[in-house]
Amino acid sequence: MNRRGFIGSVLSTGLASVVLPRTAARAQAGEIRIGMSAAFRGAAAGLGSELYRGAQAYYSEINARGGLFGRQITVVALDDG
Q1: Maximum distance among all alpha carbons in the chain?
Q2: Of the chain's two ends, which shows fewer C-beta atoms within 10 Å, N or C?
Q3: Is 73 left (phi over 0), alpha (psi -120 to 50) or beta?
């Protein structure tokens, strides 16, 4: 590893140790809303519904374990037809 690469890795590690705890602390308030677009009507309605149900099941499991950084996850679905 050259000198420039070593200094860059040290600086990025130091920056991550400062930024990540602040980000995690800020993430404590509110909920996390994740949007998804799928077909809920028409020929592909079955696929869209199953995608939504699968996402909802996964996020419900995460929420049951306390959420992500203490925040609950909700799914907002949009029918793209």
Answers
A1: 59
A2: N
A3: beta
Cα Rg of the chain, angstroms: 20
21-39 pLDDT tens trace: 555 555 456 899 999 999 9
| Alpha carbon distance 8, 13 (integer Å) | 9
51-to-13, 14, 39, 59, 62 alpha-carbon distances in Å: 37, 40, 9, 12, 17
Residue 12 CB contacts under 8 Å (≥ 6 apart), including other chains: none
Report the predicted TM-score, pTM, of the whole model to 2 decimal places.
0.58
Q: Which phi and psi angles does 27 have, rounded to 5°?
A: -75, 0
